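Give me structure tokens for this 443-residue protein.
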Amino acid sequence: MKFEKLRELKKGKHAVTGLCMALGLTLLTSAVYASYDDANGYQNYKESIKRLAFKENNFTAQISAKIYADGQEFAGGNANVKADGANSHSKNSSSSKIDAKDDTSSDEMYIVKNGKAYNIDNKYKTYYVTEADYEQDYNIFGLPNLEEDPTANRLVRFLELSADAFIGDIKNNFVLESKKDGIKNYTVSASEVQIPEVINAGVSLVGGLGFNYDSGTEYLTTRYEDYDEAMKAYYKAQTGKDLPDDYYDNEEIEKVLDGFYELEDKYSDKKSGALVVYKDASTKYYKTLAEAMEDPANQGVFNTEDYLAGFLGKDAWIKSGKNDFSIDEKGRLLTSDITVVFGTEDASGNKHEIKVVVNLKIKDYGTTKVELPNLDGYTKNDGETILYEADEVKEDKVSEESANKLDDKEIEDKKVQDAKEDDRKVESAKADDKKVEEKKAEN
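Here you go.
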């Protein structure tokens, strides 16, 4: 069924969400590790990042990331990006080592080529095509040209100075390891005691927010062993019939399913903990999310975010970090290999270690070409997504045409009113002249 496929896709993206949070912290930290010295390492690194973001529009970038929790690989992701000035290509994949019973991997591509946007799902061998919603010209990220936009330039300058302020006393950690054929190789590292207090305060805050958001401490967290199977089981238990594939927009069926949608309302008195809904539509409540995840019966029920939240609770901080990177003779970033180790303390007071490893490689500056892959064997359109987007575009077009028609009518009405007003003024002037003539005749 289509909704089963869509459900799998959504589940696959949980790993990406958790990964993005960790990557954000990692990249923030790596920016702090670089500092000024005689080799201008900090300045070179900063300028290479700015150049990549605001100026470069032809390159190939490969990035991989992995998260380890207490020494065990937790989740990972890969991204490949190409840009050739007019077109762009991104290929993303992710996977989780936690959800053993479910295939949570994803493998998707988004290509802009000759004004068309190709959305390709390599996992399900499907794709659809739409009009590109932007024109790529100056850089791949759609950011403004700093040389032509003074406001954007001032904003970037402000952000640069703010980043400089975060550096603190990390001045002597930068090392120029080698320089050959115009390529400079740097290494930057910092230990726990060298991390500025403001950085670890931010990490602790973000860790706490992530924990409260998805840990079952602030509200009831509900997870399904298999949402679609549970829905089918509930419907059959209530009616003795199988749930038809085309149950959408069927009022009678929806009335029956209202009870399924409201299963967690039975636990409305619970302000925390976790509720698990199983395939047979049965439920089980746990006082804590950790308790639910530790139950062997729930293997594959919880996603990567849930497990990551389980390592948080009371505190989070940076234990160490390292960034080995290289820059070419033109100041362009070539590689950046980042490792950051976070210490955490969970709700029970147990301490853990989360390690994030990011490897970035950029090549083929100025020579990259974006080409469409061979889509033989792929199914064009997945039905619902395309119809929805097509309907949306159609509605926008109709609204625009209606607005244009209304504008044209208003213009015509205005012309008619103006003409009538001119006629009225002429008649009024004639009447005034007539009165003047009559008055003269009387005298």
